[in-house]
Amino acid sequence: MTKKLQILGTGCPKCKQLAMLTEEAAKELGIEYELIKVTDINEIVSFGVMATPALVVDGVVKVAGKVPPVGEIKKLLA
Amino acid sequence: MSSCSCCGGTAFIFPCSGGSNVGEYSDRIARRLGRDTAASMYCLAGIGGNVSGIVESTKAADKIVVIDGCPLDCARKTLEEKGIVSFIHFRITDFGVAKYKDPVSEENVAGFAARIATEAALGKKESTNVVAGCCS
């Protein structure tokens, strides 16, 4: 099943870095995924998130306010 | 509204917001501090309700201030249940307020808020960011 991966952030370098590392992690795992960048502040706060960047996997916020290393992101996606 | 501020400095306040007078104090103080300081009041119910965005944002905070009304320490225990144990804790009854007895006064709300802001070293509000976390 295709995983829905959302990167919450307004487009700063950290948000872009999290998107890049998440994509790298998903590719290394060989999973089917759809990556969506959520930049609208109202949509971001609708997740309850108050610290960006954040990674959402299939509707669940897995990490917020930091950019974890690829190895850690792989565990969040698995 | 500034859209992004991921340079850190995130501070959240969690009051117990309980049903008694001391619970009311915790809530009113947290709202006042959220207005007047760099810290933001956040949703304890979201922690108890396991709302992932709230739990994960809280884990990323640089500073967490917990305000309980009484020694039941419901707010502290709610955060600890989620493994969040690094915070500055205050209890309204420790300020000399008797639970269920002393009426809530605006003077005390202001005084206790100032005391907590000082003891927790909450800086002054410099922006109106809704979301903390990102910078260039």
What this model shows, in words?
- The complex is a heterodimer of chains A (78) and B (136).
- Chain A is α+β, with helices and mostly antiparallel strands.
- Chain A has one domain (3-77): Glutaredoxin (3-Layer(aba) Sandwich).
- Chain A is built from 3 helices and 4 strands, in the order βαβαββα.
- Chain A has helices spanning 13-29, 41-45, 70-77; strands at residues 3-8, 33-38, 54-57, 60-64.
- Chain A has a 4-stranded mixed β-sheet with strand order 2-1-3-4.
- In chain A, α1 (13-29) packs across α3.
- Chain A is globular and about 30 Å long.
- Chain B is an alpha/beta fold and 136 residues long.
- Chain B has one domain: Rossmann fold (3-Layer(aba) Sandwich).
- In chain B, 38% of the residues lie in helices and 12% in strands.
- Chain B has 5 helices and 4 strands, in the order βαβααβαβα.
- Chain B has helices spanning 21-36, 44-48, 52-59, 74-81, 106-119; strands spanning 11-15, 40-41, 63-68, 88-91.
- Chain B has a 4-stranded parallel β-sheet with strand order 2-1-3-4, with helices on both faces.
- In chain B, α1 crosses α5 (106-119).
- Chain B is globular and about 35 Å long.
- The model of chain B is unreliable at 1-5 (pLDDT under 50).
- The interface between A and B is medium-sized, with 26 and 27 residues.
